[in-house]
Automatic annotation (TrEMBL):
Keyword terms of this UniProt record: Metal-binding
Metal-binding listed as a keyword: yes
Pfam name, any one: DDE_Tnp_4
UniProt protein name: DDE Tnp4 domain-containing protein
DDE Tnp4 domain boundaries: 1-116
Entry superkingdom: Eukaryota
Cofactor (UniProt): a divalent metal cation
Lineage, highest ranks first: Eukaryota, Viridiplantae, Streptophyta, Embryophyta, Marchantiophyta
GO terms, molecular function: metal ion binding
Length: 180
């Protein structure tokens, strides 16, 4: 998708979205796991979004703050990844077709996999140190599931229930002195 597309549009067009709403969701999520989204997203069973308008409601405001802290931690992780892999700081290619997009996705995945591998070894190597050699097994291909018919109202209702569950857990954790 072009960079001008909204994140929600990109998600809804992705194979991730299809898998999140299919019988294959167990391949992505363990019981109780979900994605966090900002208020631009609609909550669902596997995606919990911040409230669009907290309207002075302390619980909603605290929940949105909790989500914001997680997002900041995520941004820090991306910054650390980019500090090791300078090639990720600025992608210097225009994506003209699907093949170029797939190449870029593979490049980013390789950087992430090697980053995680080096972290497990507690190795402080960076891309500037020169090439490293890593044997890679063949990639397992998981076919895209057929797009299921989505009952939009049921999905929204389920998402609201899920967000309230997560909100309750988050607020209880925060109010028991565990911070954000």
């Amino acid at each position: 998708m072009p960079g001008s597309c909204h994140d929600v549009t990109c998600l809804r067009q992705s194979s991730l979205w299809k898998r999140m709403h299919s019988q294959q969701q167990h391949l992505l999520f363990d019981r109780g796991q979900y994605l966090l989204g900002d208020s631009g997203y609609t909550s669902g069973e596997r995606l919990v979004a911040a409230f669009r308008n907290a309207g002075g409601d302390k619980d909603k405001t605290d929940f949105n703050t909790c989500i914001a802290h997680v997002r900041i931690a995520n941004e820090h992780c991306i910054g650390i990844l980019k500090s090791r892999w300078h090639s990720l700081k600025e992608v210097r290619t225009q994506l003209k077709n699907r093949a170029e997009n797939q190449y870029l996705v593979r490049w980013v995945r390789c950087c992430i996999l090697q980053h995680n591998f080096l972290n497990r070894r507690r190795d402080d190597w960076t891309e500037a140190d020169g090439p490293i050699e890593v044997e890679v097994e063949s990639e397992v291909q998981i076919p895209d599931p057929p797009t299921p018919p989505l009952d939009e109202r049921a999905m929204i209702a389920s998402g609201r229930r899920r967000r309230l569950e997560v909100q309750s857990e988050c607020l209880a954790y925060m109010r028991n002195g565990n911070g954000h």
